[in-house]
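hey all, quick one before standup. I had two proteins in the batch that finished overnight and I want to keep them in one place so we stop losing track of which output belongs to which input. First protein below, input sequence then structure tokens straight from the run.
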Amino acid sequence: MNSSPQLCGLVLAGGRSTRMGRDKASLMHTDGRTLARRCADLLREAACETVAISLRHDQEIPSGLEDLEIVRDPAGASSGPIAGIISGMILHPDADWLVIACDLPRVDLTTLCHLIVSMQPGEKFLAYRSEFDGLPEPLCTLYSPAALPVLEQARADDFRCPRKILIRNACRLLDPVTPRALENANTPEDWETAHIS
């Protein structure tokens, strides 16, 4: 009997991209793929058996992602990435979920694989320490099945910040293995610098 949980991957792409001014999931990386497609491919390369993309309930599926499982936030949901993470985890509640935001143009396979191999039995979450403030990086995090009830309770309590959830639950933090891998792009100015290799 295999005691290791299934590993699934989730790309968070349901944000409104208001600061960017256009859909971040559809931004074109220098390697010729959209950010969302690149993240999905990296999750597959990191051995995720299933890869899903999280979208708002009314969001159009970004072009080129029709092969992924689609998970939708509930209509009227305003709980940010927590809604997407929960919706994804419910697909396979007994699996470990490697969750990454689509707006990480520098994320690499080494970063994802190091997270996977570093997870210890009994841990609910595992994340990287931010290079900028030392706090958890919640949108490149491994969530075990035991994390799902924690996230559901946080949503029920209207507690929406995934970073604070990790802090409150004593998430173990790893030092980054690739400099700037988790630097996100929220604005056109961020995009001009962050996606350049």
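OK second protein, same deal, sequence then tokens:
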Amino acid sequence: MRNIDLSPLYRSFIGFDHLASMIDAASRNEKQATYPPYNIELLGEDKYRITMAVAGFASENIEIEVQENTLQVKGTKEQKDAERKFLHKGISERNFERKFQLGDHVKVLAADLEHGLLHIDLERVIPEASKPKRIEIGSKLIENQ
């Protein structure tokens, strides 16, 4: 992929530096390894699930961390292949690190490991102050007298 220079966005759009940073982070995330494979599923209007195939990893080998708007999933495992001799090795049990950029107000609710699949449930919770407000026509401003 070609490199995109985002510096004009930083110079031209005051207050939109967060947007430019997100675009920059997304372009860096494209260079991530493809292991482990994952799905992102829409469960409801504001509910999501990330499912990662982490065969061979136990819950104590996986670390999930959220910092600012980045979800980071790390898997670390001791390599014990020296004593084993494979004729074919198709199951990759190597260490991994995968990052997901979360949108504003997206919270991680829970994580569960079942049958070699790591499920991470997320929900977008929009605060009341950010929700649209309906203004009735004919409403008048009450002045303090």
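Flagging for whoever picks this up: The chain has two domains: 1-31, 34-128. Residues 34-128 form a domain with the Immunoglobulin-like fold (CATH 2.60.40.790).
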